[in-house]
Amino acid sequence: MQLHIDVPWILQVAEVAGANDPAPDDYGVPVAAVARHQAELLQREVYDGPYAKASALVHTLGRCRWLERSNLAVAAATGVMYLEAAGISVKPTRDDAIALKDLLLDPTCTAEKINALLRSWPRAS
Prior knowledge:
mainly alpha; two-stranded antiparallel sheet; 2 strands; globular
């Protein structure tokens, strides 16, 4: 299943998850996140499957500063909402959310590491 989201979708998530944050400082970041999760090389998807696509979104939105104070919350919410839209209901615990925050703050953070973390999150029943 190919699920592609767009910038307005990310901005809606940011409006909810980033409550009370002013308008984005850099609209290029969500534009880049959309392009990244849809990326193809030699007619093959760079990020194959919903977890990989969610990880690319989370990595771009969480590592690139574009909101005044809610980058990490919006990045996490985007990942959860993307997986939900792809038919994968996850129910991260507080510890899962803290692990994602810590990973996003780590300079060695990659989309692959985020992918592994998202896959470890408990599924909702």
